[in-house]
Amino acid sequence: MAESRENWGSKIGLILAMAGNAVGLGNFWRFPYVAASNGGGAFMIPYFFALIVIGIPIMLVEWSIGRYGGKHGHGTLGPMMYLQAKKAMKPKKAIIVGALCGMIAFGVTILVNSYYNHIIGWSLGFAVSSLTGGYTGDPTGFFANYIQDPKNLVFWVLALIFLAVAVMKGIQKGIESWAKIMMPVLYVFGIILGVRALTLGSPVDPDWSSLAGLNFIWNPDFSQLSWQSAIAAAGQIFFTLSLGMGIIHNYASYLQPDEDIITASVATISLNEFAEVILGGTAVIPIAYAFLGPEGIKGSIGLAFMALPNVFSTMTGGGIFGAMWFFLLFFAGITSAIAMYNYLVALLEEDAGIERKKGAWIVFIGYLIVGAPIALESILTKSANLVYFTEVDNWIGNYILIVLGLIEIIVIGWCVRDSALEEMNRGGLWKVPKWFFRLFHQFLTPVTIITFLVFFTRDYWLAGNFKIVPSYIAEIPEFAIWVNLGRVVVFGVLLIGFIQSYKSIRSKYRAEIDANKELAK
Ligand code: PFF
């Protein structure tokens, strides 16, 4: 049964939903610590380079693949990429390309959300604690205790129920209506926090002011430039713009066939970058810098959940600002996670004929299962190491997105070529010029991604990420079991994803794939 395809209700709803998809925990939780631990200002140089050379061209590609796929009744990436690849190669090769892309999107939407939903739950829990003064006693230790206490999983389950109910209502009444409420509130909270950050002065050390924090992020120290920061920047661009995940395509599949995707892509990117660079950059980094100084700011997962509660507990009016910060994270997380949730519900609708309401509950149970190891690790080992989370994120949240981006740009830029440009430009108020397509889609973007991927792989190798006991847990080798559990799950989900996508494409296009086999005989 084909999915009964809805459309977006209004232009503003579409833009806010897409912005909601892109603006997420990546902007406020991930960006500050990735930027701070990769050289601050020096990180911003490859960051803007990657935004222009990778972010903009791939965003355009994903919108157009999605709109085209939607026109043919598809909301998932396998069949969408099959349709593209088929323009340039035999169906029996195209099905492999489609199945590989579908596999990655399947893996990402299941596994990124397996930990992401937990961060949304933590945000809600921490928002409540800000208002009730929960973390005032020991703000830094609060996080570790929080994730070891099974009672707190209630916030995770609440977040999942929220997502299920919202997705069940469909595109216009669910996703679009929530984006219209949550996105404006998120921007208002971000602006208030940004203003508060800049008026902080130097509460702890005269050398650490919020303005010095701005300097740290905006004044590059060129000696800090490295391949490692460039790779981190490219990874951040993929993550923050939701590229290489299948969820931009899925939202674009609910467009009308001639709707302007150029303006919409530019709007999505602009809203995302405003949230990330201006709000994430000025709200979080200067606050953290003013209280923690240049070294303290280089936290990891902890920056948002350990360092900032510490700050809020000493700041005047910290309870309110803390609540605002964690609600901001919560809204940002929900409006993104809803996109992955919807992807899987669309997949069940399209490939198994399961109606939306039932699908939403199946996905709910699925997320409880795949999210369980994250919770279990902290509860059973009484630690806050989160190595299962780290391992899954290393491969699925960082690495594989770039692989999908590469396949897409090669298919569009090198295989489909000029007709892909025509498709992209259809209905556009502005058009992507031919020279831009030649320079970016056909040359700079693929070449840059290939280069990054080579260095990325080398870096992971050198960092000891391929070892049975990866180097990042060298001091806690007994945690190798959680790392390897993560690897088994990643591998297993990808394998299922490949088979699922292959079958999905084959069941829809059996006639032409088989006809082609006949010819080949
Ligand atoms: N662009 C999103 C972000 O920055 O958080 C990426 C994302 C992650 C979307 C996880 C959806 C999701 F469930």
Automatic annotation (TrEMBL):
The keyword Membrane applies. PROSITE patterns: NA_NEUROTRAN_SYMP_1 (PS00610), NA_NEUROTRAN_SYMP_3 (PS50267). It is a multi-pass membrane protein. It comes from the Bacteria. InterPro entries: Na/ntran_symport (IPR000175), SNS_sf (IPR037272). Its main location: membrane. Pfam families: SNF. Belongs to the sodium:neurotransmitter symporter (SNF) (TC 2.A.22) family. PANTHER family: TRANSPORTER. This is Transporter. It comes from Romboutsia weinsteinii.
